[in-house]
Design brief:
Layout: H1 13-19, H2 21-24, H3 33-53, H4 60-77, H5 79-85, H6 89-98, H7 107-120, H8 140-162, H9 171-188, H10 192-195, H11 198-203, H12 209-215, H13 220-231, H14 240-243, H15 256-262, H16 266-274, H17 279-283, E1 297-298, E2 304-310, H18 338-349, E3 356-361, H19 369-380, E4 387-391, H20 394-397, H21 404-412, E5 420-425, H22 435-446, E6 450-456, H23 466-477, E7 480-485, H24 500-509, E8 522-527, E9 531-534, E10 541-546, E11 552-556, E12 569-572, H25 576-585
Helix pairs in contact: 1-7, 3-4, 4-7, 13-16, 21-22
Length: 600
Amino acid sequence: MTNRSPLSGRYTREELHNEARALLGVLEGVGDLESARRALYEAVGRIQYGLFDTPASLSQTQQIRARDCANVLRGMLLPRSAKVAGFDMAQALWDVQRGAARDDLQPGFWADVTHLVEGLFGRAPSAPIEEDDIFDELTGREAAIQRSADLDALWERVERHAARFESGLSETARARRAERKRRVLEALGGTEKDWSDWRWQRAAVLQSVPRLAKAVKLSPEALGLVERARQGHLPFGVTPYYASLMDDDPEAGRDRAIRAQVLPTARYVEAMVENREQRGEAFDFMGEHDTSPIDLITRRYPAIVILKPFNSCPQICTYCQRNWEIDDASSCHEATPEENLDKAIAWIEDHPAIHDVLVTGGDPLSLGDDDLERLLGRLAKIPHLDLIRIGTRTPVTMPMRITEPLAAMLGRLREPGRRDVAVVTHFEHVYEITDEAVAAVDRLKRNGLSVYNQHVYNFFVSRRFESVALRMLLRRVGIDPYYTFVPKGKEELSDYRVPIARILQERKEEARLIPGMRRTDEPVYNVPRLGKNHIRAMQHRDLLAIRGDGARVYEFHPWEKNIVERDPYVAFDAPILDYLERLAALGEDPGRYEGIWYYF
């Protein structure tokens, strides 16, 4: 980051040297790197043993953090970690001790390593306690009553934090949306009848700056970025319905997540424009070129394939995984040639190992009912397919597409005991959930369809209890939380990325507090070419290093690692300090996220 916040000034080389004095002291007189590496490795073990030999002075939280920090630091000191990560922690600590110049080490590095050392020595903060916990001193009914009172107080805190985020179902939001709808229709020359017609919504997608400016209040900077994106032939489009979700007072921040879904950032635009001629090579993060045995098919798992019959969407998400192959917001010209579709379906027929097909794209619900029924009907006739999933964001961006006839047609494809049909969508924030969206989901549910949500955990939806509010509302709507995705490690998506530590923290300190049926989603990292890697357990990854800018370097193990030999994947995370500084710029108190440093 170019403009450092006051948060950065807290972390310096001098502070780290002071905090790590007892560890770095073992490097006095060491004359070579390998000797330094071995001395540090052995010292970490001695420090950990000493803390646990007399742990009475440490809280339970401090003991656990000391253990975790010791294990992580020892892993970083290994020669293999330095080789794979391209950054040597032993070298960096040795240089700090002997005063060698290291201009590459920035505040993000000092911050993360300082917390690592504080944790190692048992100086990490304990878990916050708001009042004396006497539960452990009681037994029987008396203990149960006290425990129940403690849990009431805890849930009150959950509700208080989650209530910060207004949903699209609040009365004030409904009033704002009604006025915004009226003004969008006026700007586009549409009628109430038009609004309810998904074909009109698709045809009226906002793509040009003049039309967008008439319908949505945008800053000159935002309009300039859209103009630059359009000049660079980048995919862009906002449905009239979704435009009505954007408030007239964006400075209030209620619709920040809404705007972030569709309005590109400067880094996104410049990276995409710069690589426009080779987008397939530059932005195919998931390596779909290497996992596509035939056009329109992607296969990363034994029994699942992706089928892409339509190459665009009614609305383009800024963080789209397939931004390299989507040309623009949907039109009737993006449908796949019938010949290619025939070959792809024949390929599925020829592979009886396939039991689950995810029909996505693009958004397949951009197709008309007749075309969609023809396609899905052909899939339903394949004997070995027992699950058809529809990947679509139309319940979020164009809920009027989920008509009664469409929902009934999808429901007819179900054959209980033989084949199921499910819809997988992407609600990212409670402000996206409106009466129209609820009605669309209800039409699907009444026709026997399961509806799941995949949540892209990007920066703009990552504040304390923001995802908790979403999960709670999703279940009331009838949607099952399915996956929480780590944003792709693509350069053009830097503004959307969140440290893996924050996702782990959210899971343990926030989501864990809500009922189990509300937190059925699994946090995952999509490993290029190989597929989803669950990030709950350390068995799925190793933390190899903390680079000079503060970015953690992870080695993700392939899901097949205990089945066949497969190379791991090395990923560079978003620096924690940068993330906290960006939160501070939004008015968040970084102190409320203090535990983030101790999730690995």
